[in-house]
Write a structure and sequence with these properties.
about 325 residues; mainly alpha; 3 strands
């Protein structure tokens, strides 16, 4: 490594985890922070439940500066004191640089934070004075109660001024941060315009080539339209058939079909009746024929009867 000192795997792991966390969350779009904010974010239980000391953080910051392009600076003027500030690069692989603009942002942020703390303290003190005035009044100490109310009124005036100042500082900070976003948007616009311009100049992509292509497309469409019109002429007679005439013809066909079905049904019934009658007549003829073939006493041979009479006489 080019950092000039030995780095344990633990330091490397923690540093890489800090960079990944910051780039993924972007710390509410804040790439600049004070050392106290850095400690609050990464000193306690950030990786493997490890508590980092000031010496550990100093080593990690130097490693981040050497290997990941993080910048830091001491003695940056803030509200009431000087601060150490840390700036992350906007993208991995870049190196951050602290500018006067960054120092101004830190000054405004620390001022806003200090005003916020003052507002909280003034509000708390005002509420305490109101409770104290009420308590003194209950004890009969009217003078003390009035004194507490006067102090509360003075604190309230200071509180209102602090709130107005904090509102102004917040507005300025918001405009500064939004202007940074605007700058990035403008840069993106410029990059997009440059890329589009380069594309328009490549591979014959120009206004003339686009007009020529559109003219060719229109010509092809016109030819296709003429073909469709020519095909349409041959089918006009077919397409102009009267729908009412077609429907009447269909109704006539349906009626004829129903009539034929009725006639066919009657013929079928007649044929069935005839077949049944023929079958019954055939059965009767067969029965009559069988009756004629059966021998009876009335149809016996006369010669046999005479012989039987003679035999009876001789026997007697």
């Amino acid at each position: 490594m080019d950092c000039g000192y030995d780095v344990t795997p633990t330091v490397k792991t923690i540093a890489e985890a800090i960079v990944r966390h910051h780039l993924s969350h972007e710390y509410n779009n804040r790439h600049i922070m004070t050392l106290s904010q850095f400690k609050q974010a990464y000193a306690h239980h950030f990786v493997n439940e490890i508590d980092l000391t000031d010496a550990d953080l100093s080593l990690i910051l130097r490693y981040l500066h050497s290997q990941h392009g993080i910048a830091f600076a001491d003695h940056v003027k803030g509200y009431g004191t000087n601060y150490m500030i840390i700036k992350f690069p906007e993208r991995e692989g870049q190196r951050a640089t602290i500018t006067r603009h960054d120092e101004a942002v830190i000054n405004i942020r620390t001022t806003c934070y200090a005003l916020s703390v003052q507002v909280d303290e003034l509000q708390k003190k005002s509420e305490e004075l109101a409770k104290e005035a009420l308590l003194e009044k209950k004890k009969g100490h009217t003078a003390k109660a009035l004194y507490c109310l006067k102090r509360k009124k003075n604190l309230h005036e200071i509180l209102e001024r602090r709130l107005k100042s904090m509102e102004t500082m917040d507005t300025i900070l918001m405009k500064i941060e939004s202007s940074q976003d605007d700058i990035q948007v403008i840069q993106a616009f410029n990059m997009g315009a440059s890329a589009l311009k380069s594309l328009l100049g490549k591979d014959g992509l120009s206004i003339e080539s686009v007009d020529d292509a559109m003219e060719k497309i229109q010509t092809v469409l016109d030819d296709q339209k003429e073909i469709e019109d020519a095909l349409q002429i041959g089918t006009d007679d077919f397409l102009n058939i009267d729908d009412d005439e077609i429907e009447n013809e269909l109704s006539q066909l349906i009626k004829e079909s129903d009539s034929e079905s009725t006639v066919a049904k009657k013929d079928s019934n007649t044929m069935t009746t005839t077949a049944v009658a023929d079958s019954e007549l055939s059965r009767l003829n067969h029965l009559l024929a069988s009756v004629k073939e059966t021998p009876t006493t009335h149809n016996r041979n006369p010669s046999l009867t005479a012989n039987e009479s003679r035999e009876k006489e001789l026997a007697s």
